[in-house]
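# step 3/5: fold
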Amino acid sequence: MKNTLNTLFLGLLLCSSIVLNAQSTEEVLGKHQAAMGSPEKWTAVKSLVMKNKFSVQGMDIESKTSILVGQGFRTEVEVMGNKIITAINGESGWMMRPAMMGGTGEPETMPADQVKMAASQKNIGSALIIAQKEGAKIELESKEKLDGADVYLLKVTKDGGDETQVYVSATTYFIVKVTGKQKANGQEVDTEVNFSNYKAVDGLYFPYTMETTSPMGGMMTVETIAVDINPNIDANIFAKPTK
């Protein structure tokens, strides 16, 4: 009888823990959504153009990203007179790289693993907002310290099993850091992006400063210059050019 009661007690504790964790996860997600702007305003965004600037090996570089939400994504970067383009069009993707970056200077079909990795960029919002929209599993792992500040650590698991760790400020409820793994050239590499300097654009908040893993090694800082919401975008810019 005693063993049965102990087992029942442990079972009730486990159930309570699961309920509390679910409630805490929902609470953090709800406060994060409120901090980023109303869901109705995010839903009303059908297109977006963002301009960024960053520095690599002493070179100041600017980029332009165009998004038709749920349909297409395209980023253009000019380096030393060479244009680098990455584009997702529906379920396919293509890129154009100069010879100095291992490309041909002509449009190339993007490998399937890279298309999968970049597909979320057709959507807008934070990593958590996009994950919720895509139906990923989100779990609150812990509350801990990051650079001396309290943060919530959430684990995001996509349908394919890919996992990312998302750190949310316990004060502002903005995302301050995302870590995970990505496949590059057939190898898994650790990724890390730090977010700060959030600013409102038409009532929606965007991080204007991002520190991310540099392809040259180490970290690089990316600053947002401008965000344009709902501009007119020609869908043809996402299609792979044909000769």
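# step 4/5: annotate
The first strand starts at residue 47 and ends at 56.
# step 5/5: archive (pending)
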